[in-house]
Amino acid sequence: MKRLLFTSVFVCVLFGAKAQSGYLGSLNNISFSIKAIPSIKSKWSLNNDLDETKRSPRLAYVNYELGYSRVINKKIEIGAGYGYSNMKAVSDGLNYFTIDTIQLTNGWTEYINRSFHFLEEPRIDMHQFTFDFRYYRLGSLAPTGKYLGFGLEFGASKIKSTDDITLGVRGDNTKSSYMTSKYDVSEIRTFNLANDSKSSYFQINANIGRNYPITQNLMLGVGMTFPIFTIYNASNGMTFGFDVDGSGNSFTDDSNLRNMLQYTQEKYKRISLDLTVKYFL
Amino acid sequence: MNAKYLILLAFFVGTSAISFGQSELDDFTTLESKGDVPIDFTTLSSKKVETDINKNKDDELDKEFFINTRFFIDELLLSGNVLFNEPLSDYVTKVAKYTLRQEKKLFKELRFYVLKSTAVNAFSTDQGIIIFTTGLLAQLENEAQLAYIIAHEVSHYTEDHVREGYVERQNQKKSKGRYKRMSYNDAVHTLSNYDKDNELEADKKGIEIYLNTTYSVDEIYGAFQVLLYSYLPFEERVFDTTYFDTDVMKVPGSFFPDTINQITQEEDYDDEGSTHPNIRKRIDEAVDIIGDRESRGDKKFQVGEEAFNKVKNLARFESVNLNLAERNYVDALYEIFILQNEFPDNRFLDLSFVKAMYGLAKYKNHGRFSEVTRKLKKVEGESYVLHGFIKNLDRQQLNIVVYRHLYDMTVKYSSDKVFKEYFDDYKKEFCLYSNVDIEELKAQNFEDFKTDLDSNLQTFNIEDSIRKVDESDLSKFQKIKLKKKLRALGNDDVKITGDEDFHLFALRDLIVDKGLRDDLRSSKNAYENEVEDEEKAQEEAALDAQKNGHHLGIKKLVVVDPIYESYKLNSDRNHGKSEDKKISVSHIYEESYKKLDLEVDVLDSKTMNASNVTEYNEIGLIKNWMSEIVDHEDLQMLSSSHDKMAEVTERHGTSKFMFSGIYGYKERSEANIMHLYGILLLYTAPFALADLLVVHNYFELVAFEVDAANDKVEFVEVHNVNLKGINSILRVYIYDILHQLSSEK
After folding, report:
1. How many CB atoms are located within 10 Å of the residue A129 CB?
2. Does the N terminus or the C terminus of chain A have fewer Cβ atoms within 10 A?
3. What is the DSSP string of B579-604?
């Protein structure tokens, strides 16, 4: 499959090389894109004194991408890119239970269940590689005007075993509004994974958008990307997405944290609004 | 002074003057403007609108009036076909100056131009521009008739008829004033009568002006007669049926009609649907107005008869050009016939003759003859004979007549390569498409043939011949056919003259002295191979262009007056925006692009200044040339402007000319079943509603490039684009076109 794809691209490039003018004679361009995925999820942040934690809305996940694309013929443009984003994982009601043992004076052992929440979600880096194919429609000449296309994307992220995961016990609710709420912190505990937690995904998406010429070398692109099909691969095998139902899921070992990573990726790989600046060589 | 000497001097001056006028016509190619381009042509239409709106104190005139009139007239002025600072417009101005000599202030407000057009017409605008067509100047008999028409048109201006007509039309459109509660048909009728009343008023006021001159009153009626018969050629002369005869070829008289369609136009024709009253009414009104009054003189010429004749002849020569460009080849031939009586051996007329015959043969050979000839029942007057003759010739006959004349012209003008160009192209046409069987061409004299035929017919025995056919080995059906023909010969109504074969003998001198048969045989083979190779190459190029775009390798290009038209959502033209965008598009063509190896000259009518008269003339010539090529469609032939375009090619250093038009418009999507589904599925409802409500922008771009070296359309590109036609977007498309034209394979 990969070989066929590569061969097709190569053939198109080879035979289409002189056939079109591209953008004012330039067939190649490098681009910088900002992709924003709207979110209705919230995040937790610990203050510097470590005595208050705040829940606030995420609004959007933002991805930054550097790309290269080439005009193949009057209607087609292909491109490849590398994207990066840094975000807080989505904890979404995930708790950590411990069982504390207390030695009573009478010699009995009392077991106390303790529940720890995320006071601040761990930050994760997401890396992805993309390949795009665009078809310019309704009279547009590549790479200017309106397009429809599809893309292939491969991405991965991880939480290292050396990364500190800050959990704790939330105390009284000190402030509450529609968008944010604050809680006292009564206890903090730092947790580390036994091993690195990794999650990767492969996605096929569709994209639609429009490119506007700005100067003789610059173009501005506005578009949207729609996921069509996504496969996730957490360390414990391939799945098609993991959903936390928010009813108090717990973890006592690493597997839920790995799922949280995958869950974060799933939330991240949704419809995005894309803004791109292209520079023509 | 010695009387003899005086007579000699007068004779010398007279002949010099005549020969001066004559030599201008000897070198005639086309009428062109000269000197500085007037301010009427160089001021932007939007500027004129702005200025006139600011000056306007008339509440009934809205912005639309100024926009429509200024832009409309400017389109005509900038067509390149309006003449200024040259003999015709200068003469008209002189006559007008004399006619209005008691209205000096009025004269200063007016500008007089001449439009190259076969239409017999004149019109005036509210801005003081008065235009006469060359068709009119070609028809007039004397200066006095011109003076009356000038007076009539000036009266339209002084009586504000353009303004009044506009207000009246607005009232009719909005059902205001007298149009309230009027049915549509009554409103149209009333409006038509209003226009006619304006014409009668202009006649009346024009007569008042005219009677202050020394021109003869009778010429007012003369002018009406000119208008009445303006649909006929500028002269009615009996067509000489030996016109096409040469030393070798005699066209039998049987090919010419014996009678003509009489001229049927009457003065009292039905003027119901016309904006002008019929001539009868106008004459009657004129008689009433003039009454017993007389003008101050009885002259037919005041500025000068010689000047008038020069102008009239120039207009007539130009009429030949215009008829050729409009593919009215037979009308052009008749005009050439008339003019050759006064100007025999005139190069322009001879070349025009070649072009007309060449055009007729081309269209005949490719099954499009009806496009360039008129229905005989619609032809009136003496030219009927010529029209009838041309129609009576079959394909082979016409081609041989054309070959004969084109060949003779190359001999007459042996060092003139233009004649050779037309002949060489025609020879190819003759070999490939004329259907003439070279072997049937005779080396014999036609008269000798006819004598032999007559004597054979005397001794011919039909029964004997029929018996011989019966005894022959021919098939049953061949015998039936032949016996039928033989029996028909016995019919007393059938007269065998041999006239239908006259053409076979028309090239006998070339067969005997120049080896024509061998020449045509070998040429035919060569042309057939050439055409086959050309078609193959064209097919390959077309396939390649489809896949990969064009690669014409052009290094220099002339872009001719690129068009931009912008339309609003209600399909009304946005004139102001169209003008601005037109100038922007020209600038985009002129920009230098780093990655493009192409030099571009842009001729733009909207950015001319006073010194650009050469460009102005070029725009007119090139546009007319292009229009003719478009009319020819896929018929490959040299245009009638081919020789004139050679000069333009030399000036610009390239024979590649490009035309482009961009049309920007807005539309809403039409509601369809997909919109309904979209709305019913709630998630997509916003998108479906947006698609219905949003106004979509489109533009259509058409561009084609023609090589003036062979009058061939080499490149055509059409785009229909769903984007707004902003400059940055247009630049992409224009660059793409220039890239295709300049890139090499």
Report:
1. 14
2. N
3. HHHHHHHHHHHHS--TT---EEEEE-
Paired with A185 in beta bridges are: A170
Which residues of chain A from 133 to 152 reach within 8 Å of chain B, CB to CB?
138-141, 144-146
Note whether B739 contacts A: Cβ–Cβ < 8 A. Answer: yes
Note whether A146 contacts B743, CB cutoff 8 Å.
Answer: no
**Pairing assessment for the beta strands A60-71 and A28-38 based on DSSP bridges:** antiparallel
Alpha carbon separation from A60 to A268, A273, B210, B606 (Å, rounded): 9, 10, 85, 52
Q: A21 vs B728: CB contact, 8 Å cut-off?
A: no
Tokens read off for A145: 């005007």
Spell out the residues 6+ positions from residue B351 whose beta carbon is closer than 8 angstroms to its own: B409, B418, B419, B643
Residues 6+ apart with CB under 8 A from B350: B409, B412, B413
Q: Is B736 within 8 Å of A140 when comparing Cβ atoms? A: no
Chain A hits for B722, CB-CB cut-off 8 Å, are 138-140, 146
Interface test with A, best of B548, B687, B700 (most A CBs within 10 A): B548
| CA of residue B696 relative to chain centroid, distance | 39
Q: Compute φ and ψ for A224, nearest 5 degrees.
A: -135, 145
H or E element in which residue B358 lies: helix B347-365
Which residue, B244, B284, B68, is CA-closest to B170? B68
Cβ–Cβ contact B76 with A under 8 A? no
Among candidates B594, B721, B731 on the partner chain, residue whose Cβ is nearest the Cβ of A139 = B721
CB B226 within 8 A of CB B145: yes
CA dist B57 and B67 (Å) reads 16
* Interface membership of B735 toward A (CB under 8 Å): yes
Query: Is B386 in contact with B332 (CB distance < 8 Å)?
Result: no
Segment (H or E) for B537: helix B516-548
Q: Are B320 and B332 in contact (CB under 8 A)?
A: yes
Structure tokens at B733: 């498309």
CA angle B603, B607, B613 (to 5 degrees): 65
What's the burial of B639, exposed, middle or buried (CB within 10 Å: 0-12/13-18/19+)?
buried
Is A89:A125 a contact under the CB 8 Å cutoff?
A: no
CB atoms within 10 A of CB B319: 26
A5 vs B: CB within 8 A: no
Q: Within chain B, how many helices (H) and strands (E) appear?
A: 30, 10
The per-residue pLDDT of chain B, averaged, comes to 90
The pLDDT tens digits of the residues spanning B596-640 come to 889 999 999 999 999 999 999 999 999 999 999 999 999 999 999
φ, ψ of residue A206 in degrees (nearest 5):
-110, 150
What is the C-alpha separation between B67 and B578, in angstroms, rounded? Answer: 12
SS3 content of chain B, % helix, strand, coil (to 5): 60, 10, 30
Pairing of strands A95-103, A109-120: antiparallel
Nearest CA in chain A to B736: A21
Contact between A140 and B723 using a beta-carbon 8 Å cutoff: yes
The yes-or-no verdict on residue A239 having pLDDT over 70 is no
pLDDT in tens, B570-588: 888 999 999 999 999 999 9
| This prediction's pTM | 0.85
Q: Which of A86-100, B127-141, B285-299, B678-692 is predicted with the least confidence, judged by mean pLDDT?
A: A86-100
Q: Hey, what amino acid is at A212?
A: Y
- Cα B720 vs. chain centroid, distance in angstroms? 30
pLDDT higher than 70, residue B22: no
Beta bridge partners of B82: B115
Nearest to B732 among A18, A23, A146 (CB): A23
